[in-house]
Amino acid sequence: MPRVPRRVYLDSGSTTAVHPDVLKTYKDLLDRYFVNSESLYDEGSEVHRMMERARSAAAGLLGVKADEILFTSGSSESNSLAIKGSALADPSRKHLITTSIEHSSVMNSMRQLQRLFGYEVTYLPVSEQGTVTADQVRKALRPDTVLVSIMQANNETGAINPISDIAEVVQKESHALFHVDMTQAIGKIPCPMDGIDLASISAHKIEGLKGSGILMRREYVKLEPIISGGEQEFGLRGGTANAPADIVFAKTLRLALENETKYETEVRSLQQRLIRGLKEIPGIELNSPEHNLPCTVNFSYEKIPSEVMQNALNRQGFLVSARSTCESNSNNPSYVLTAMGYSDRRASCSIRIVLSYHNTEEDVDRFLSALKEIIRHYGEL
């Protein structure tokens, strides 16, 4: 029988496989530490101590204080809590600033505050490179601005915003808080916390568990809880703690940060190999800017819609996406690409590749070969 080629995963921006060390620790925790961490008996107290050690370890890795780490279910919750929680905690100021290309959890939080609570939101336009500038933020700031929320790296194109410059402007020229969605950036590029008041991180993007994440919240930041309940997470997130997932988050983060150099060397090399190959294919248009994450490549071939291309690649054994997976059921053009000035057609024919250090040069070469074959077959549609 002919050998079936292995399926190649090129969608690490959507989710990642759990790191073997994280998985082993998690299974061990499930077997032994299943009790409620808020229980007063010895077993509950032990789980609580383990959670606090994990909180301290995660804080140390990020260079913040232990009580500035809130365990959440992931970045969508962290983003929602950061935005809605900070806005509702200071109802005297009704202005927010974000960009036109944020993740849906940010965009929909902003829209909800507009629709139900009368907030005014400034959506900063992005350049052709998919980024905003500190000067844009400076000009948008107002006395009643309560929060600025800007992603560090875009989930579709990998474009990187000048977070340090923006943080300096917000800190020096306003009383607003600054929130950064670090979901796609952490573990791939340096993510310093200087000048940042709130930051969101999700475990499943860095070889951790789904349903696990953190919100870094400076101790001076006031938040209104979004999930009402008991006194868990300093009274800011009610509900029984997902203790085993929270405990292994610290290990997940440590491993991700240790692998950061692999992204700048090994994965960047694969990315450049892929880009060189794509440039040799007539009709391919690169959508990712030059200054982007070392793992992300977004491109379009305007004769083949995204859905057709994804299905064709799937049949060839390649797992890819077209945009944020949270938007994968939408038939609309990518709002990220249209915001960058690309046509609806180009934005409707985009493909997103997100590489990892598990991929190889052979994976890239096989992908390029399959892409050429698909274009020959479907390219005249």
TrEMBL record:
A molecular function (GO) term: iron-sulfur cluster binding
Q: Which domain of life is it from?
A: Bacteria
| SUPFAM superfamilies (alphabetical) | PLP-dependent transferases
User: PROSITE patterns under this entry?
Assistant: AA_TRANSFER_CLASS_5 (PS00595)
Please name the InterPro entries in this protein's record: Aminotrans_V_dom, Aminotrans_V_PyrdxlP_BS, Cysteine_dSase, PyrdxlP-dep_Trfase, PyrdxlP-dep_Trfase_major, PyrdxlP-dep_Trfase_small
Keywords, alphabetical: Iron, Iron-sulfur, Metal-binding, Pyridoxal phosphate
Please name one Pfam family that this protein belongs to: Aminotran_5
Per the database record, which ranges form the Aminotransferase class V domain? 8-367
Q: Which cofactor does it need?
A: pyridoxal 5'-phosphate
Q: Which family does it belong to?
A: Belongs to the class-V pyridoxal-phosphate-dependent aminotransferase family. NifS/IscS subfamily.
Protein name per UniProt: Cysteine desulfurase
